[in-house]
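Reviewers of the previous submission asked for a worked example of the structure-prediction workflow described in the proposal, so we include one complete record here. The input consisted solely of the amino acid sequence. No template or homolog information was supplied to the procedure at any stage.
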Amino acid sequence: MLISFVEIQNFRKLKSVRIDFSERTTLFIGANNSGKTSATLALRCFLSEPERFTSNDFTLSNWPKIEKIAEVWEAGGAGDQTVEPRLEDWDAVLPSLDVWLEASPDEIRYLRRLLPSLDWAGGPIGVRLRLQPKDPKELYKDYLLQRKAATDTLKAAQGDGGSKIKLWPEHMYGYLERKLHQQFEVRTYLLDVAACKPPVNGMAVAQELPKDIGPLEGNPLSGLIRVDPVPAQRAFRESSASNFREDGEPSPSDGSLPLSDQLRAYYKKHLDPSAAPEPADLIALEAIEGSQNAFDDRLTEGFKNAIKELEELNYPGVADPRLKIATMLRPVDGLRHNAAVQYELGGEDGEKSARQMRLPEDYNGLGYQHLISIVFRLMAFRDSWMRVGKANKTAADTTKQAAIVQPLHLVIVEEPEAHLHPQVQQVFVRKAYEVLRNNETLKKNSEFKTQLIVSTHSSHIAHETQFASLRYFRRLGALKGEVPFSAVINLTTVFGKDTEEFVARYIRATHCDLFFADAAILVEGDAERMLVPLFIREHFPKLHRSYITLMQVGGSHAHRLRALIEHLGLNTLIITDVDPGEPDGHHKFALPQRAAALVCNNHTLKVWHPGKGLYDELLAVEEKDKTKRYEKEQFTIRVAYQLPVMTKIVADAAEIEALPATFEDSLLFSNLELSKTLEGGKLLSKVKEILNGAGTDAGKCKAISETVRKDNVKAEFALDLLMMKAKFSKLAVPKYIHDGLAWLESQLDTTQKILLKVTARHAAPAVGAAVPEPKPATE
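From that input alone, the workflow returned the following structure tokens.
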């Protein structure tokens, strides 16, 4: 049995998304605030921790609809109109999680309450868990009662001179802040396999529940799926009793327990000899009892004089019990201190010697502490699921339901990369699933399945995982009447096999942050990779502080990333070369010139955008036509390639048109006066010699282009410019790059303004604030 996919509706930014699960490990990736944490929290809330729900989990754009329900109630309750509260009124706004399982006929004993029909012979089974009012009529009565009490009090205060105080509940949002768990609960419904539809543009198409269908009794998934989370861990706290529940287990929402606390919890559940002792535990218990008796005798002797003094004060009296000092030693107490976990230094193979030294756990680096912590939690989850050690007897003594070993184990790890070196991150994601399966029962019995969900911002972890396991959370702009929300893209089928292998190898080699950026810049060569970031720092401050990834694609291979860029929906600037070629069919490189029937050798410009195959056609493309807008996906790409440069070398000469074909000659043509004085390597020296020598301006420009093409020392050229220091700020950015960067900056600025404006318009009202009227988004 496996979870094939889930669909989340109306939960925070996740208006309606489908998330496909891999059989083993699934990675949630995406930029900040794209919905990854919302997805992991939805899984936890619906499947195992419903007490975590708050009123803030309702999608923001649904609050005007919820407040409208309350307004109708109040209008009906105040007049002659009769209001009949119905659950159907809430259908469109209720948070829900659809879980689609793939099961075999052999697992029918787990699925008796979920079978879609009596003739089911294996295949998909869908259930919806929905947070809904327990009793709409009771909710209606209580809300009106609380509202009436508040308004009556305010009216009375106004009769005494008025009051500006706003009393709870001022609106439904404020009411549910306090009474959500009193009035709402999670109920489960069966779904129709035939009505399940594929997502459209990354958005799930949720099926409507039939009007006559009722919820199932209880939670039928409780015996099917065990959920264990590892929350994002920011730091390690000191040991504290508040870190534990009453049963001694670590708090499931706590991500910062010290290692000693985690080990103590594991020991108590799986190893404690005093819990359901076995013959092998008797030796340890006998030793503990002997130590306790010896300690008691020493305490009695030590307190003898103190107790005698008490007796002289007539205590104890005739009818009073006598005072006795005794100890109670428990094995777990040996781990209840800050030095319970130590690191040994010196000695080999566990050899004990006088030279062997030890340090407490907080003396080790945060990275190693974090790695040990996560791996230990995974082992503890696995052993608790499989009832290893004492946990087996403990489960057998409880209810029959609790003793059942669920066939499916869902483990959620959030941001494991904290404090970890990139190589350790990659090792972790490769080995985490193996840790969860390192049990003899799991190795022999294929009935028990484990699925691991990892939410991450680390490109190193993403690069270590196959594309088929990546789920990209993409931020979308606001649709009419909505707020910005998210879509989830399954990267399994983005590429064909050959292209996927190329992209995977290339992304791993460059360690780009394409999956976590707000926008992307694709460049061709080493010189652009080194100098474009400096142009951004010097001339585009807004871009400099934005989350942008710059990726070198080598040659004119940006088109190979087309499918990935289109699926990610990233605003992308492609800085590429125009690559003119001879029209003889062999497409040999040619120095650029107009009206010579030169072709374009750049596949990006030919097959992606603007789709022009001739050099003269590219020169004629207007600026507005260099962008390609994807309306449904809500993003834009723009190409930037070399443009004619009007320049002159001799001061009193007329300007001429120089036609660059590469980044280097375009940069030189844009800075000819400055280039006369530049000191550097082979290329700069030759350019300086050409500029200061004899000849016409046209001849010198042609000689510069030929030199750039012939010498092919682009990296050295870029390094020479980097060494200019003070002079670098005087360099003029080639126009085609300047225009492209200005476009990208305007795109990010516009997107930010729309997001802020629309989000503010639909924000849930704060306590004591008036509910804003819903307005349609016109941007």
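Residues 236-250, 396-402, 766-779 have pLDDT under 50 and may be disordered. We consider this example representative of the routine output the project will generate in years two and three.
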